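User: Last request for today: this protein with 6-O-phosphono-beta-D-fructofuranose, please.
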Amino acid sequence: MSDAPVIRGTDPHSFPHSVLAERHPALIRKVQGAFPYGPEQRRALEELLKSAVDGVVEPPDDDEWWDTWDVRRYAGRSWFDLPFLAAESCFYRRLLHAVGYFRPGPWQGVDPFRPFKLAELDTPEAAAELTALDALAEQPPREQLRALLHGSLWGNRADLGFRIQSAEETETASQLVADDTEQLTSLLLGADVLCLVADNAGRELIPDLLLIDHLLAHGLIDRAVLHLKPYPYFVSDATTADTLDAVRHLVAAEAAAGHRLWSALSDGRLALRAHPFSCAPLPYADMPDDLREEFASADLTVLKGDLNYRRLVGDRLRPPTTPFASTTAYFPGPVAALRTLKSDVIVGLAEKTEDALVKAEGRRWRTSGTHALIQVRP
Ligand SMILES: O=P(O)(O)OC[C@H]1O[C@](O)(CO)[C@@H](O)[C@@H]1O
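Assistant: Here's the final one, the structure of the complex with 6-O-phosphono-beta-D-fructofuranose:
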């Protein structure tokens, strides 16, 4: 089914079009408001704003990322004509370039999204996550694991890019459209090494870290490898700096998990990775050999979030009943996806589930973030 249509934003009524035409400009405005950038950066951001709305892709000459991932070929084309995954990825690269993130100088390495990510850590929702841990300890072990998995899953709803467009945070109608929780729990209980491919910082990363801590602290796994982005990407995607912020936050909150995670990082039971491919505009099917070997050496890889899901199954409009197992057969080891639905891509649905969703909501269920899934390919 690799010839299923690639998702693009060409249709003005489509979801990708709305992301490119509305979400990206709103994000630039937010970034402009968050820092006292100098004239050069302000000019570059204004140019990007114009280009994002009605311009074309203009790769900067001094950025080799465009060559590394062969996306300079999109120069001169409308953002809306590009494959959606490439359009978004190129947009974030341009945004970082505009604020001088990669250029030697005082703004080098200053994450334009950091204020938003830090604010996430201080929300009542993040605090509630920690309070809930005490009550959880009273539950039977399998129930604890299930609750932590679901905490990590629903934490994925918390990305800032998504909330820029959908202001309301609907708690109603939340449901799993595919639920392999039992299979995932069994796989985790038999695993020594877990790879967790993180998605967002802040309110998503905290439950991810609590899950990892639980697995390590109870001896359910020996080692965890946490895959992060090497630099800011898709607004709230977690980097090493964000992970350290989250662990420091847990330590400051005097959560025992914070101290245990600190030790696990120090003694190597929790290892961090930041592979360049994590910010590539490509599906995981095209991953380089060293990353493939890394995933192959784990007993289980869990991919978090919508973007990772799109990259795992391919950013294409496949029939929703296409089996998850065959779509991910190329992945070099057991793999699981934990994702709230925030884009058109979906596979692995039962026919009656798809029918019921379409009947009740048309297409909205695909992108509203009110539905989620846990899918596993052992
Ligand atoms: O943080 P997540 O779960 O990867 O979601 C990010 C999603 O937001 C978007 O950028 C816009 O919806 C999607 O394209 C992307 O998949």
